[in-house]
Known about the structure:
By secondary structure, the chain is an alpha/beta fold. Helices cover 39% and strands 19% of the residues. It has one domain: Rossmann fold (3-Layer(aba) Sandwich). A six-stranded parallel β-sheet has the order 4-3-2-1-5-6, sandwiched between helices.
Amino acid sequence: MIVTFCGHNDVYGSEKVRSWVETVIRQLINEGATHFYCGGHGGFDRLVSGVLQKEKERSPHIQSILVLAYLQENPYAVDYDYTYYPELELVPKRFAILRRNEIMVIESDVVVAYVTHGWGGAAKTLEYAQRKKKRVIVYPDTQ
């Protein structure tokens, strides 16, 4: 099972959000999740990366994957098991993150979202996941 995360750069109440992410990740691992996609572009992604690193101590079989929007070095790559670059060479640079997020959703079984307002990339990714009828878990609800 593949899980994608999407969320805003600014994370308010980060300890509460971190606790929620820990609970959701453990629940998904218990359901068979093994691969966790992050975009690595903001506070929520960094929070998720930290939770996944710690969770690997308990569940060493899981994989945290940084999905790149641009084919260049990324300073956060060391925080993940590996990087994945979907073929985006023909996508104009200004649309690369949006297209990368769509690919992440398409390839995923579950999308976990920290979306507190209706604008920005995280909100667009959440809307896309809902249109694609993916299973979505949105903070603070876990339905």
